[in-house]
Amino acid sequence: MRKIRILKIALLGIFAFTISCSDELLNTTVDNSAIVEGTLKNGRLFFPNKESLNATFKELKSKNHKYVDQYVKEKGIESLVPIINENSEQQVIELLKKRKTNYLAKNASRVSGEISPVLDQDIYEDLDDLEEIVGDETFAAMLNGSAEIQVANNIYKYTDVGLFVTEEQNYNNLETYLEVRQISSNLLEPTEPQFREDFLAGKIGGELQTLQNTNNKINYFISQSIYPTDETNPVGSSPATLYPGGGYSGGSTVGGSTGGGSTSTPAVEPSFASIVEGLKVGDIRKPLLGNIFGKTWETDDKYESKRRVKVKFYSQNLYLVYAIGCKVKHQYKGWTGIWRGENADQLGIGVNSIKWTFSHPVNMSSPAGVPKQAYWFGSNAYFSSASGITFSFSQNQNIPSLPFASQLDGVIQFVVDQSGLTEQQLDKLFWENAWKQANQFLEGQNKKLNRVAFIVDSYNASYVKYYDFSQVENNQDVIERIFDWGIATPQFTYTFGGGTGNGVAVTSYNWNFSKPTAVNVNMYGIAKKNGGWHGAKLIID
User: Helix (H, G, I), strand (E, B), or coil: what is residue 527?
Assistant: First the structure.
């Protein structure tokens, strides 16, 4: 089997955006010469430094699941979530049943009465739960069966109450810490709700913290506070009330609904547009456990007893790595009962819009030197005049910094003289102004805008909207759109005008895509199989 080489990552360029992290465990100077391949150590994937982990994660993230499976097998890791194919279904079931049975037997003293045998049906549900907790499937494959990975001398252990970090020589004390507090150390067996809520109460999200009564030797991380202790959200309140990502959000199942009064018209062929228009708005699964490390929103269309189209948006901060993206899968329920990937005749993903909102201090004047409208297509740019009626053309212009700028066919930027905009106002601004003008610029150039970022700045907030009309592929089981991934946090500085601003007013803001003020999603997944089209819309307003 061909060895997978990670060292080539060292030659990659520096990120186009600024990364920052104040946590001591990660805040080190990048040294590409230190990048080496991971090895197996005590059943865990081991990296001598975070740069090596980052390089491996980026390499695997850019590949398909077969490549990831090959890497895992080469390293000898028993993955937290094994890659499932037609030939491995039964093996995966037996592996997970054994893992769960061993854990239950080890902790039998906590359970009154006889332990029930682990059934295949339990494993089917557990696999979906694992995908929800560690939303990024590539990173989940890098974790071992105990949801652990080692970087330098630190072991990182993921649980359903958060991430625990301790030095290798203190690992036994971590096990004792979890056992005393009755926190499950195995993601196949959830922590009982009462113990989970007691532990999470008052925990601060977004930063690494040292736990009390551990001699400063055990650290803890959770993406955001789940059960804050204040008068507005007292401990003991409903999880779904305390955390908006918890529970389920019911969606309409009436065909043809576009949700939220959207005026968008996807740039696709009329026949295909009518198919998309007829898709149901799926019931959205926003599980509480799945939001321990960020957002994981899912829906699906089970169009046959053994086939489904699964649509997913995720924004995960796992401390060691983060990933933001959306995905569509076509899956088949094999003879064992496990859902696995199956090629569809055609598989498509469409993003009517994903919107990130970033609040900023009120600024009643437009950024000096920044045009009201700007359009970038590669190195070509069009900037509006002061009146906003005419445009000037420029070549060799730098596109504004966005984590996913290299994936875009165009970036459109508007500066508006008003306060916060509604979704309907942003839609109207894009479709009736920006979209029409952009296509006029490209008329006769034989170019098509498939993926576009629309940036709008108002007096008190900036909006980033992503549109994707492009993707229909033949004989695929998964399509993924990754907006950003890496190490530390997806934080960068956006400069309005792409650096053209030359005035004294504020022309740039720091944006962190893992911590926007709000996120709105309007996307769909669609598959053609056995002559028919199937799929669902995922809409979060």
Answer: strand
Which tokens sit at 364?
């009643």
Residue 462 burial (10 A CB sphere; 0-12, 13-18, 19+): buried
Cβ atoms of 316 and 140 closer than 8 Å: no
Helix (H, G, I), strand (E, B) or coil at 126: helix
> Rounded to an integer, what distance in angstroms lies between the CA atom of residue 229 and that of residue 203?
9
The candidate with the shortest Cα–Cα distance to 465, out of 476, 474, 457, 475, is 457
Q: Cβ(134)–Cβ(80) under 8 Å?
A: yes
Please, are residues 251 and 284 in contact by the beta-carbon 8 Å criterion? yes
Q: Is the Cα dihedral 170, 176, 180, 186 positive or negative? A: positive
- Interatomic CA distance for residues 282 and 466, integer angstroms: 21
User: In the block, which residue shows the tokens 């080692």?
Assistant: 150
Question: 526: helix, coil or strand?
Answer: strand
Q: How far, in Å, CA of 409 to CA of 171, rounded? A: 48
pLDDT at 111 over 80: no
Residues 6+ apart with CB under 8 A from 322: 294, 316, 484, 485, 486, 487, 488, 489, 490, 514
Residue partners of 304: CB distance under 8 A and separation at least 6:
none
Indicate left, alpha or beta for 495 from its phi (over 0: left) and psi (-120 to 50: alpha). Answer: beta
CA dist., res. 84 & res. 340, Å (int): 6
| pLDDT (tens digit per residue) in 119-133 | 777 777 767 667 667
Q: Tokens for 146?
A: 């105990």
In whole angstroms, give the CA distance from residue 197 to residue 209: 18
3-state class of 159 per DSSP? Answer: strand
Residue spans of alpha helices (H) in 393-526: 423-429, 435-442
Q: Residue 467's Cα: distance from chain center in Å?
A: 16
Task: Note if the pTM is more than 0.85.
Answer: no
pLDDT 10s digits, 304-323: 999 999 999 988 888 898 88
